[in-house]
Request: fold
Amino acid sequence: MKASVLELQPGDSVNWSDFEQSLHDRFGVNAVALQPNGERRTQGALLPANDICRIIKESLKAESAICATLKRRLLHTVRTRKRYAADECDAGIYRLIMPVLLADAIEGFISVCGRPFSTTDRLYPETIHRATAEGERRIRSLLPTLRPIGPRELKEIRLFIFGFAH
Reply:
């Protein structure tokens, strides 16, 4: 498969915390290793990709409305197709979820998000404001600090994930 899954071999041992940190450090994203049921594999705090994500993640209501909804939908698609799926959340942040396979069975997932696709013009400050109660002016002031992501870097992320076990 062409960088659409992370295939593990029997006996492979993965340090998921280091993997999450490597993705964050290299690409400036929120990176989370998930179990087959969609729950997080690792413990401890994750470094947010940016202050917008930090604001969203600090609010249970916002995290549920913005992040969890897209996560559920993408996980369903990935389980069905056994290859990565991607889309934007209601805030306008791009998210990619890639399956981790072991002997063609889903062993878990890698979720990467935290950057808008192509431009910060695709973000929705009003949605973030309503979900978090953070001031819309503050949210708008943070938009220029976000680093958009394009097709080339998304391909690099997929190749990085795919190559992690190879």
